[in-house]
Amino acid sequence: MNKKMMDMLVCPIDKHFPLEIFEVKSKEESVEEGVLYCTQCSRFYPIIEEIPILLPDDLRDKKQDMDFLKNHQEKLPEKIVKQASPWHL
To answer: 43 lies in a domain?
Structure first.
């Protein structure tokens, strides 16, 4: 995901702007893996292979999200790993 996109992204649930970004793996101008986080509703949205997965809860792949959290739990803040919606570890 190009970091310049942060100026355009809003939470799909409550339309909150801006979202926080936590980078797990990145290059100069892009984030390869990471998380977007809405401080308003406490939802997280993974960035996988440079693609932000900004889907409402009913369209999300729970297994993919849980695997992502388990694989990156040491690099992400506790508010995402232990408390974020729609699910957490």
So the answer is: yes
- The answer to whether the CB of 9 falls within 8 A of the CB of 34 is no
- Sheet with 44-48, strands from edge to edge, namely 20-26, 31-37, 44-48, 51-52
Domains in the chain: how many in total? 1
Sign of the Cα pseudo-torsion (62, 56, 42, 37, in order): positive
Nearest to 44 by CA among 57, 31, 25: 57
Specify if 86 maps to a domain. Answer: no
Cut 0.90: pTM above it: yes
The encoded tokens of residue 12 equal: 């799909």
Q: How far apart are CA 7 and CA 88, in angstroms?
A: 27
pLDDT, tens only, 31-88: 999 999 999 999 999 999 999 999 999 999 999 999 999 999 999 999 999 999 999 9
